[in-house]
Amino acid sequence: MASINFTLTGYQILDRIYSGTRTLVYRAFRIDDKQPVAIKVLRNNYPSFSELVQFRNQYTIAKNLNLPGIIETYSLETYHNSYALVMEDFGGISLKEWTEERETGPSLMEFLQVGIDLSDTLDILYRHRIIHKDIKPANILINPHTKQVKLIDFSIASLLPRETQTLMNPNVLEGTLGYLSPEQTGRMNRGIDYRTDFYSLGVTFYQLLAGQLPFQSNDAMELLHCHIAKQPPSLHQINPEIPPVLSEIVSKLMAKNAEDRYQSALGLKFDLEYCLEQLEENGRIKSFAIAQRDVGDRFTIPEKLYGRETEVETLLEAFDRVSSDRTEMMLVGGFSGIGKTAIVNEVQKPIVRQRGYFIKGKFDKFNRNIPFSAFVQAFRDLMGQLLSESDEELKKWQTQILQALGDNAQVIIEVIPEL
Domains of the chain (ranges plus CATH)? Predict the structure, then answer.
């Protein structure tokens, strides 16, 4: 057992079972009743306000979910300048660790059993109006002996039925870039709902079956572009032993538009159970028409833009021209609520491909007394994106901005304080 320097009143610490960049997890038992527990703490001795909020968020959401498939949360203890989250310990290890410990990946039988259990869990979240937003192998625990599967880490989960992701630098986006749904990037002109978890589950399935992520890159912006616009190689191409219908199921989960994915976890579960039934009876899985039982019980209007193809095309053509070192300015006008913002937001997708920055400003009839209000709004947004870049990138921008502004720099700073 490794030496540990963590103590918490009322608990006997046994060993450390996880060490991440942000959190540490210890195995322990409660002294009062000898109950085995897992204790999660933040690695940072002086955590930021947002880290503390996320820690409380996962306790607040998970404490009321004493349900199969979701880790049970016992208490939130005060620990130094932070918190300690006390959860059940059912002898599980992360799915990531479970697959890494084996020379080969999970068998088809094991994969299907895990997939069916996770479908059940997503159905539970759906019925409780919870969006997890960070489904990945590291957040899925499995008991190596009983094969029981449980979902953990509700730190960025949401109780809202729908969210709008604001445009942010990829380095500070919520979630894990390799598993992020297109709408979670904030660059799809679409809101986030329960179907974002289906995409992340699809990436998880892909990794379990292929032994690799569908998109691999160390460049955050390139990863975003892949999630938004690129199709990964099909699982059947990577490994011919994977039945084509399983490849089809995973591809449907990973559809770019939410309305093209599965619309219910039970529809997904039915298909996986049928695959398992075939495998147990015949030793192989034949192709069949998937998603025949996939019916959502919520009325969801597709977030497509209708009747504005000409205007969107005009904007995209202008963007292609300015990508070749030209400068253009375009103004979009119209009455309130006519859809100006929706049209402008459509330009975000090609901007990611060209590694550009997307900023916008809106002239508001209630802010007519503020000169250049839309320009100020747009450039304050740009400064916010630049400030989350690396020090090296910031240095380049600092040099360029100082050269361009010269003696006028102080004047601009008074208008845009972030500068």
Answer: 11-88 (3.30.200.20), 93-282 (1.10.510.10), 309-415 (no CATH)
